[in-house]
Amino acid sequence: MSSKSLHVLFDDDDNLLDAVKEVVKNKIYINEVYTPFPVHGLDKAMKLKPTNISIATFMYGCVGFTVAILMMNYIMIVDWPQNIGGKPSFSFIENAPAFVPIIFELTVFFAAHLMVITFYLRSRLWPFKMAENPNPATTDDKFLIDMETGPNLAKTKTMLKKFGAISIEVINNDEDEK
Prior knowledge:
Alpha-Beta Plaits, rod-shaped, alpha+beta, four-stranded antiparallel sheet
């Protein structure tokens, strides 16, 4: 990893997307791209791997489904069976149609809430965390690529200017290592 990196600022998402494709084609490593809104196709242009977070969502939904069934069985069949409107309370199967809404709601509840917690932990977003955004303009209307300098800095700068970069700043990373 080189001791210098580039912060390249763009004012148009199409220019950003074209520049990212060219940078990846030239095999220059991109640390991060900061945008004020999601840019369609940026993940594919950066060749990012798809996430497996949907597997976690399914597992959290299964946990919610299981908790709902066990809870309803214990509350309505084992612990406090009640005769409501003449409906039998002898087994879970006989009452299953009445339990479907509760099972569905708890499945969605567990999946949604545990996914939010997983997202925050995975993204390392916890309360009182300082922002890591290198340029405040990226929260308004600018786009920034934080990337390595590449083998030839002058050639890299020329290429980025060709794609519409409005600012190219060389950042010295030696300060971060101390």
